[in-house]
Amino acid sequence: MGEEPTNIEEGLLDTRLYAMRIADGHFEDIIYFLITGTAPHGYSVQQKNELVTRAVDFTVIAGHLYKMGHDEILHKYVPEFEQE
Questions:
Q1: For the segment 25-59, what is each residue's pLDDT rounded down to a tens digit?
Q2: Is residue 78 in a domain?
Q3: Domain total for the chain?
Q4: Where is 76: in which H helix or E strand?
Q5: What is the model's pTM?
Q6: pLDDT of residue 23
Q7: Cβ–Cβ under 8 Å, residues 49 and 41
Q8: Which DSSP string do the residues of 5-70 spell out, in sequence order?
Q9: Which of 2, 12, 62, 81 could bond to 8 as cystine, CB 3.0-4.6 Å?
């Protein structure tokens, strides 16, 4: 019998099955929304609606942003400072 993963990312399918993308500043709002369930302070009703529409395809796993692509590959979005 195999050992249980010690964290969520270890429980993901083989890490070679996902692609990495660089996340620019506007992804911070998506992460904030997914974690808190609220839009950042100062958003208008239209901005909130747009944020919900953009965030629907994303999920946060262990503090990292992922999106399932049309190719059914899980794409991990990393901040620019982590790209190396």
A1: 678 899 999 999 999 999 999 999 999 999 998 99
A2: yes
A3: 1
A4: strand 74-79
A5: 0.66
A6: 66
A7: no
A8: PSSTGGGSS-GGGEEEEEE-THHHHHHHHHHHSSPPTT--HHHHHHHHHHHTTEEEETTEEEEE-T
A9: 62
User: 23-37 burial by CB neighbour count: b if 16+ within 10 A, else e?
Assistant: beeebebbbbbeeee
Token pair for residue 12?
């993901």
Domain of 65, in residue numbers: 17-82
Residue 72 within a domain = yes
Chain centroid, CA 37 distance in Å: 14
Could you give the dihedral angle defined by the CA atoms of residues 32, 67, 65 and 74, in that order, rounded to the nearest 10 degrees?
Answer: 170
Mean pLDDT of the chain: 78
- At 26, list the tokens: 């506007």
pLDDT given for residue 10 in this prediction: 57
